[in-house]
Amino acid sequence: MTLPGYRTHEAAPPRGRGLAVASLALGLAGIPALAICGLGLLLGIAGLILGVTALIKGTERDLAIAGVVASAVALVLGTTVLVWLVSQAAKCGNSTDYPDARSRDRCIEREFPFVRSSGHPGSGM
Prior knowledge:
By secondary structure, the protein is mostly helical. It has one domain. It is 62% helix and 0% strand. It contains four helices and no strands. The protein has helices at 18-33, 39-57, 61-92, 101-111. This is DUF4190 domain-containing protein.
């Protein structure tokens, strides 16, 4: 009940936590998602953008910082693995060390044991 001449103060609406929570979720999901063809890199980038946006808006600073850190970890891990994979693939593609397709295939099977050879097109495999 309000007395005449007095105004009631309405509570301020709660500050949004959505960006900070989304940043943390994407950053944490990005780490294991690196195993799925680098999907974690995309999640890490999105999480980093949302986390920085949440920090700029000033909402849920602790969650936003955690999201930025988790996203940065996903990005660093993903970039490191990507650089390593590309360097190994370049080594196996060196025609001086591996002059024919068979020797390159053996290099790939040795350097990337998780890759199964499916044969070459037209080889009947």
